[in-house]
Every structure is written in C-alpha cells, then in structure tokens.
Specification:
This protein is α/β, with parallel strands linked by helices. It is built from 10 helices and 14 strands. It is globular, with a radius of gyration of 19 Å. Bound molecules: adenosine-5-diphosphoribose (APR).
C-alpha cells in the first residue's frame, strides 16, 4: 500500500502524520511544490517512527516520479481561507492548482483512488474527476465526516456526554448551505429531540455551519487541519482495510436524490474499490429542498469552471 499526500501544508502534513502513526501503508509520500518543506516534514515524521513504533516509510518530494503507482492519493494542495473569506472565494486559484495536481496523478498513478480535501471541496472534487478521467467510484471528497464530527462534538459539549455516543448526519455541499439532519441524529440510539429543544438544536446546527469559519477567525492565517486530517484518515482506513464503513462523503451523483452531474455530501459505503455504494435515504420534502439548494450552489460554481 502506497499513499501519496499532495500538499505538505497544515492539512497535508497532519494527514501524513496520522497515516504513519496508524501504520496504514508501507509508504507515505508527501509532495509539495515548495522545495525542502515536504522533505523536511517527512524526515521529521520518519524520525518519530522509533518512538511511535510505526514502520511506514515516509518520504518527502517535489517530484511526481516518487509518487508513481500510488494506491491512494489525498489532494490537499491549495490555498486555505483567510478571515472573512468563504470557501467559494478560493475557486479560481485552487481550480488551477487541482487541475495541475490531477494531471500529474493521471500520468503517474493511473490506478489510484483520489480523495480531495482542497476547497471549495465539492467543486474541486469535480475538477479532479474530469481531469483525471477516473471513474467516479475512485474520486470522492472529504467534507461530510468533518461537518458531522463538528455537529457531534458540539452536541457532546452541550449535553456533557461522550462524543462516542453521538451519531449524526450532515448532507449537502461543504459550505454555508450544508444540511445537518437532526432527524438522523441520536444519542446512543435515542433521537436528539429527546435531549434538547428545537432552539438548542438550531443553535448547534448554525455553529456547525459556521464551524470552519470559527476556526479561521481564531487562526487568522489559515483554516482547520486537525479535524480535517482525522476525517481523511477515517476514509483512508475504510478503503485500505476494505471496511465498508458508511461515511458521509462528497460523491458524484448520477440520479441519486434526483441530482445529476454534481458532487455533494451523501452517505456512502467505502471499500477497497472506493465508493462501493451511494446510500439513498428517504428525505422529507423540506430536507430534500435543502439538499437541492445546496447542490444548486455547487452546480453554479461548476458552471464557472474552465476545464
Ligand atoms: N502542487 C502541490 N502543492 C501545492 C500546489 C501545487 N500545485 N500549490 C500549492 N501547494 C501547497 C502549498 O505549497 C502548501 O504547502 O499546498 C499546501 C497548502 O498548505 P496550507 O497553505 O497550509 O493549507 P492547508 O491548511 O493545508 O489547506 C489546504 O485544504 O482544507 C482545505 O481550504 C483548505 O484548500 C485548502 C487546502
């Protein structure tokens, strides 16, 4: 198992760190355009191996040759948000970056499964699909696990219970129009509404929607990376171990949920072949409308792409 992480910034380096510590691959390759950064971070990570006790070789490079024939490629290359920016403000710059990265993946790792993290997430995943020409099963994005984890973490704080007992679901695009679904949110199997009133649920939903911006406001020079990296690793693990976890991911829809030719967050079964199944839920009219509105926003940005 060879895993490449493109972009050795905050999200990329943290992802590489979590991957090697979980010993999920024989080799993790960290690639960036900036000379020295991936080499230095990869060497630093490798030097932690004797302490952490992992065997995954960690290599840093500026050349795609060293990433050749990767089984999985995680794309984190691109600019992060600054305070006041929406993810959509990154569209133009990050499209160019993700196009370049995708061409290189196509040429050097033609069999890879590609997990996109760069923002605006759903649109960048579409760019990766079109430029690599890979099947949609092999190209998907990380967002839903992060959005859901944020929702779960806020519920746990509110109730003073373990995050482990909270199960939740957030659908839709990774943006302000994401669709947290309290109907599918439980505390140890008991619906959330038994624990809090609607006003509290609404407040936590809003905090989830603003979750990324809340971090950007604190950091000022960049965006979140610990939780995003943890979310990527959960997806990678399901692929590497063929676990068939059911996880919310940005998937290419071809009729599911009445949507077509768009990436949007939905629950999916992830196995060794990538997205093995998009799980279609029965939504209420209101939930469906929110999902369609969110997908519309993604489609509008896709229409702006010059691929
Ligand atoms: N090829 C490879 N790496 C690139 C390229 C490229 N064409 N262009 C930029 N990079 C690298 C940068 O050199 C930098 O090291 O991508 C890295 C991005 O790192 P950070 O600036 O720390 O950004 P990060 O917080 O990791 O976020 C990366 O993920 O969550 C999203 O919105 C976020 O789009 C952003 C991406």
């Amino acid at each position: 198992m060879k895993i490449t992480v493109i972009g050795a910034g905050n999200v990329g380096a943290t992802t590489a760190c979590k991957l090697v510590e979980k010993d999920l691959a024989n080799e993790v390759v960290l690639l960036d355009i900036v000379e020295g950064i991936p080499q230095g971070k990869a060497l630093d990570l490798w030097e932690s191996a004797p302490i952490e006790g992992f065997d995954t070789r960690c290599i840093g490079t500026n050349s795609y040759e060293e990433t050749a024939n990767s089984d999985i490629v995680v794309v984190t290359a691109g600019l992060p948000r600054k305070p006041g920016m929406s993810r959509d403000d990154l569209l133009e710059m990050n499209t160019e970056i993700v196009k370049n990265v995708s061409e290189n993946i196509r040429n050097t790792s033609p069999e890879a499964i590609v997990i996109v993290v760069s923002n605006p997430l759903d649109v960048m995943t579409y760019v990766a699909l079109k430029v690599t020409g890979f099947t949609a099963q092999r190209v998907f994005g990380m967002a839903g696990i992060l959005d859901t984890a944020r929702f779960r973490s806020f519920i746990a704080l509110e109730l003073g219970v373990s995050v482990r007992d909270i199960s939740a679901l957030v659908l839709g695009g990774h943006g302000d129009s994401m669709v947290p679904l309290p109907r599918f949110t439980t505390v140890s199997g008991v619906p959330l509404a038994a624990f809090m009133d609607q006003a509290t649920i609404d407040r936590l939903i809003q905090r989830t929607r603003d979750g990324g911006a809340e971090i950007v406001k604190y950091l000022k020079t960049g965006s979140a990376y610990y939780a995003p990296a943890a979310a990527v690793v959960e997806m990678v693990e399901s692929v590497v171990k063929d676990k068939n976890r059911v996880l919310p991911c940005s998937c290419f829809l071809q009729g599911e949920y009445g949507l077509e030719d768009v990436y949007v967050g939905v629950p999916a079964r992830l196995g060794s072949q990538g997205v093995v199944e998009v799980i279609e839920l029965e939504l209420t009219a209101e939930e469906k409308e929110a999902l369609h509105k969110s997908a519309e926003g993604v489609k509008n940005n896709i229409a702006k792409l010059k691929l």
